[in-house]
Amino acid sequence: MDALMNFGQGMFGGAWPAVWTLIKIVLIVAPLMLGVAYLTYFERKVIGFMQVRIGPNRVGPLGLIQPIADGLKLLLKEIIVPSGANKAVFIIAPMLAIGPALAVWAVVPFTDSLVLANIDASLLYIMAISSIGVYGIILSGWASNSKYAFLGALRSAAQMVSYEIAMGFSLITVLMISNSLNLVDIVNGQASGRFADYGLGVLSWNWLPLLPMFVVYLISGTAELNRAPFDIAEGESEIVAGFHVEYSGMAFALFFLAEYANMFLIAALTSLLFLGGWLSPVGFLPDGILWLFAKMAFVLFLFLWFRATFPRYRYDLLMRLGWKVFLPLCLIWLVVVGVWMLSPLNIWN
Amino acid sequence: MDFPTFVFFFLSAILVFAALRVITARNPVYAALHLMLAFFTCGGIWALLQAEFLAIAIILVYVGAVMVLFLFVVMMLDINLDRIRQGFWNYLPLGAVLGFLMVLEMGLVLGSKYFQVPAAEAVVPAGVSNTKEIGALMFTDYVYPFELASIILLVGMIAAIVLTYRGPKKSKISNPNTQVFVKAKDRMRVVQMPVEKD
Known about the structure:
Chain A is mainly alpha-helical. Chain A has helices spanning 2-12, 16-50, 66-76, 87-103, 122-132, 134-143, 147-178, 183-189, 194-197, 211-224, 236-239, 249-273, 289-309, 315-342. Chain A is built from 14 helices and no strands. In chain A, α4 packs antiparallel against α5 (122-132) and α12 packs across α13 (289-309). The two termini of chain A are 37 Å apart. The longest helix of chain B has 25 residues, at 52-76. The A-B interface holds A 86, 89, 119-121, 124-125, 127-129, 131-132, 134-135, 138-139, 142, 150, 153-154, 157-158, 160-161, 164, 181, 316-317, 320 and B 29, 33, 36, 40, 52-53, 56-57, 59-60, 63-65, 68-69, 71-72, 75-76, 129-131, 176-177, 179-180.
């Protein structure tokens, strides 16, 4: 590592910190994009097996080259701008979707030292930046000058704003018991506890004492991603494909990339906040980044499982779930955790 | 010019440009988008001043929630520009007075050094978390004003709902609660029948 630093210092001189940061960004974004590509493959295979089909099996052995072929196809296709569309906004909208989806990864820690920017308020930063992602969807719907796209955009805006609230409230309980907004501290806070002392770290993670909030977070996260069963923003059978119906080629691919990058993000956040991040579930195995990846893979599998299992939610039931079920539940649990922390039974000190 | 100064001027230029476009853009959606850019850039300047909590809060609250709803409404408006322009000269005197007052107020605040008002210099020691300090102050010294402000907001919210509430719906609207809690036996009756033989 020192040799690399010295080499870079000699090669680029004063510009080395900037170049080094760029290298780190590439080291995060490139595997993320590769992961997105293979998540689509994984999704098609998993759903295929759940529906007793084979899934993609033509391109490469076991269909493994399929995502690359899909990517190439999208890259080479023409981007058609509808004649009535607002051209500038139509072009900007996919960028507004992918930008925040990549920018949030700046503060996501992979182990307690492996993080691009270890800032104090990293969880707030993630909430702030990911809340901008909704603009890509709203603007694409508006700029397309199409009824289906506009309906999809309105549905999605209402849905994302509603579920952001439930999500934020479920995070507040995590912040209360961790006494920090820093993701590294939040994960490290889960390393101690009565069960962790017995060597059963898995029972000391936040998911157990905050079980209702874990469920709320996971379901709100699915809704926030516009994934099935909350994919009314796309709703293929109702409004063809919702906000991105007019998009083709790489512009469409950017929405796709943003959605799947956000899936990775929600999976990473769920793992970090509730499932102990890089911590090992049992005492005799070492902690490490592989645990984080395993937990993320588990949460991602849950998303695919949901998609293969549940029928789409009706719109008014979706709003009811967010505002009349999750929000009161979060408010009550907030008080419960507050009282719990002040009572002698407090387990987080 | 050192790097932070450069960043400050860069962000300020974008902020001034975006703010100007908010009031000059003909298309209201463009105006709303530039307002969003202005908020975002403002957050950047605050982050530069080491007020990271405020910076993130303005992005989370204004860009992430308020402007989304704003854009939501503006997108659905059918705005006739000619009709809006009709009243321009009538409103100009009032607008000019308000604008002058705002400039005057800003001048007084920003010129506090010039007018010899002792302004508190913010000295931030290293290792102090902005977010924690604001939280501690908000729930100790300023707890009553804070709670009062939240109650006023709550009253405003309820007032908005009451003002737009048109009474119970007379149409055959379905109640999701009864739908969700429905049981199979409410809708279906299993009948035992002997096997028919001919």
